Amino acid sequence: PNESFSRCIMSSLRWLIISLSWLSSAPTFGVYLCAPSMDRGEASVRISYIYFSHSVVSTLCSYCPLFLQCRHNVGNTKVPFCMQSCVKPLEYAIAVHELGSEHVHRFVGKEPSGFKFNKLSLNEEDKPHNPMVNAGAIVISSLIKPNANKAERFDHVMEFLKSMVGAEYVGFSNATFQSERETGDRNYAIGYYLKEKKVYYLIQSLCSIEVTCESGSVMAATLANGGICPITGDRVLSAEAVRNTLSLMHSCGMYDFSGQFAFHVGLPAKSGVSGAVLLVVPNVMGMMCWSPPLDRLGNSVRGIHFCNDLVSYFSFHNYDNLRHFNKKHDPRRRSDDDPNKSVVNLMFAAYSGDISALRRFALSAVDMEQRDYDSRTALHVAAAEGHQEAVMFLTEICKVNPHGKDRWGNTPLDDAMQFGHDAVVSILQKYQNEYVEKRSSTSKEAHSAALDSMKSSL
């Protein structure tokens, strides 16, 4: 049984160790429990399908951390709902990924408009103000696969979104689409207004794409992870596309509440008239909340309340001071996240010749060349104690620098010679002849291969 378990985890051992050591960078959020008590707001009457669904669906929430160590769901998070405006930042990211930011912004601006999201208006350059208003979203949808027909372009976006969520659910709500067609007169007007610019109307179909809270949180996590899907590990979006998308979500993502949301919450987010809120905590996690009752600006009442409570308890606000402000909790910081303790543990492992501990530190991305108060490295300590296996591990696997000097001017080789460890002296002399101060890319590949072989030897 132990051998079978080892074979199963071997390919992901590095991430497993990181995940267990972090104990989840995003713990279970008790602040969620306050949100269902908010009974204000009304579900959208513009889309009758959403309105009738409101009576049977309550508040749902999911988050997906980047290392997948502790995904968390509250409520029946497998219930599908339409994305509505939450699809706007995603279609923009697709367009920038495929066409580049410069080309996309020839047709759409990047400034908050100051008008309602569905207002029929263009800026002084005769372009929609930004991709998050309806006019901008219509333009962006026309840039994706412009030479293909509507069905092919829609399928292309669907496949792209599926690649963002791994194996999670992405579907299409025909009922929502038909409801949109019956009540979308203003969008039709914007579409006809833009038609002279050769803009083609696709946004209704995209807004009717369905996700669950679970799959939506993976979409947000892909944005939080710089465009790499945390489920598959594949790069889906370019770094440029993600950066620009998050910037626009931060400044324009919450309708007329965008400025207030940026001020109080300070995180990139996008809301939809379905009651969805797509929230991104960069480099940490993605979240999707769904609660249909909306405020007068079209945002989910409970979703906004949850986001405010989240940043009041955790230091996720973009401008929270992580070093000097201790009233908030920082779940990204481990309770034992002390660099001094890390040095002590590494030095003690080298002193005792504990190969298992050294291997664990290496796999956990610990700096194997860090120094103590005497400027001694782990290689100094292992060489002075005569631990051949530890010295071989640090040199052959970790490729540490053998030329580092402590405060007395001694190298690891000097320590081995001083204490009469001839076998260690031979190892270090041979390694010094082979060592190159600035490792080339070939050396890095060899290092990676060595770590892989180390995993297989466990």
Automatic annotation (TrEMBL):
Q: What is this protein called?
A: glutaminase
> Can you state which reaction this protein catalyses?
L-glutamine + H2O = L-glutamate + NH4(+)
Q: Which family does it belong to?
A: Belongs to the glutaminase family.
PANTHER family linked to this entry: GLUTAMINASE (PTHR12544), GLUTAMINASE LIVER ISOFORM, MITOCHONDRIAL (PTHR12544:SF33)
Q: Where is this region: Disordered?
A: 439-458
Entry's Gene Ontology molecular function annotations: glutaminase activity
Q: What class of enzyme is it?
A: hydrolase
The record's listing under SUPFAM superfamilies reads: Ankyrin repeat (SSF48403), beta-lactamase/transpeptidase-like (SSF56601)
Q: What is the species of this protein?
A: Oryzias sinensis (Chinese medaka)
